Amino acid sequence: xxxxxxxxxxxxxxxxxxxxxxxxxxxxxxxxxxxxxxxxxxxxxxxxxxxxxxxxxxxxxxxxxxxxxxxxxxxxxxxxxxxxxxxxxxxxxxxxxxxxxxxxxxxxxxxxxxxxxxxxxxxxxxxxx
Length: 129
Hints:
Layout: H1 4-9, E1 17-20, E2 24-28, E3 38-42, H2 54-74, E4 79-83, E5 94-99, H3 115-127
Antiparallel strand pairs: 1-2, 2-3, 3-5, 4-5
Helix pairs in contact: 2-3
């Protein structure tokens, strides 16, 4: 069965897209730890990050870096945190989280945004790619 991220890649589920190329997709997390929390995924459904072919893994990291730089230009923060947990969705995903303090990385404190806030934020980050 396709993961929720594969359904996003296939256009079956909408997302607040930040960036996309032939192999990777970045979109805002709809249950964010902080404003600007973004997920970068390979379009190919792979369960575990270290099961990726090395060049594909390095491509994901390069893509994620580009997106992180754009987030950092858009969302005021001390830095962009990076996490790969992989237990909640069986599809590789890199969390890029604007950090103000360590609690932003704990996945316990969430922020709420309205649809128009997500849309505007995605557009603003895209401008900084």
